[in-house]
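Q: How would the structure tokens look for this protein?
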Amino acid sequence: MKKFSLDVRDIPKELILILNMLKNDDGYTQDYLREEHKNIDWKMFLDLTLHHRVYPLLASKLKNIDTSLIPQFVTQTVYGYYKRNIFKMLQLSGEMEQLAKLFNANDIKTIFLKGPLLGNEIYGDVSLRTCGDLDILIPIEDLDSVHRILENQGFIKDDYILSILGDWKWRHHHVTYYQKSKNIKVEIHWRLNPGPGKEPGFLELWERKRKSVSVNSPIYLLGREDLFLFLVSHGARHGWSRLRWLIDIERMIEQEMDWQKVYSFTKKHNNFHVVGQSIILSSALLNADVTKELLRYTSDQSKSLAQGAIFYMENMVNLHDDLVPKYISIYHGRHLYSLMSRQQKFLYKLSYLYPYHVDSLTVPLPKKLHFLYFILRPFLCLWRKAIKQELSLEEPK
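A: Here is the predicted structure in token form.
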């Protein structure tokens, strides 16, 4: 089976150690530790374990390693993270079943995208994967009904989306709700990914859905091939900045999959290079076997994209921080663009002609005249750019 390699020289030693542990080769891990354990920053090791959300898998790995090579506080801390995750997954599982019952009672079709279901689906144990929220896909026409249901359950909507002329329907893909007393976040999706871009519609995904066998209530998840491609697009969009997302892919590659279906769906949505990126990263970092079926997705472009994702592991990037460093923001924007197919790039550039909410702030108009922003937008962009340049010139040197 083919193995791919990437340039990982600038990845911290602590993350290399974590990767070695995740490869299921205890002997190689201990050899690496004997050589490098004096150079390991164990605080950094714990920070990376937490950042990449891999502590459930590492908790059992650490027990198989010579205790003289790893400080006791490290093993205890990782196991403490794992125990807390067990309770969190049980809490989210209970909330998931309750919401599923409410939506079913109101005849709302729902597909749970991630959450606790993935633990059972991919790892065979809900406690072996972490998640911080529940992601639920619904038909867009049911958004108002879902909003009322969640409000009645004490959830508060985070109104962070600023929209004009209905652009939220295709520029965005989910809205977030919080339940403060339970410390639970729910993301309600009407698309799998932010637009613009081509993706399967809800009814198509609903036809291929599966019923979870790990819970009592009827809870539905994506078809296995749809789930794989969703996890690929989600991980790629976030630069694979958490190893947890890549481990999902590696595990699914090793399990039963209808690769002919994957090929058909990938061809339809023209994202071979992104699937190839995930396969190469899984091979290079986690020793996933790349069979002949998987080789068709790998190319020079997908290898270049995989190498580009190493940046996120060199820098411990958290894209959900309120203030993402400028150099990371710039790199991420370029990386996102490189992931797009030609069609997506065309639609992305075309979308700039569609008004943004900022246009209504630049020149406020009555709602019935918002259509004029289609004509005004090029001039408003030039105006904002000129003001920005003027302000930069006025800044003290």
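The two ends are 58 Å apart (CA to CA).

The longest strand covers residues 174-179.

Upvote if useful.
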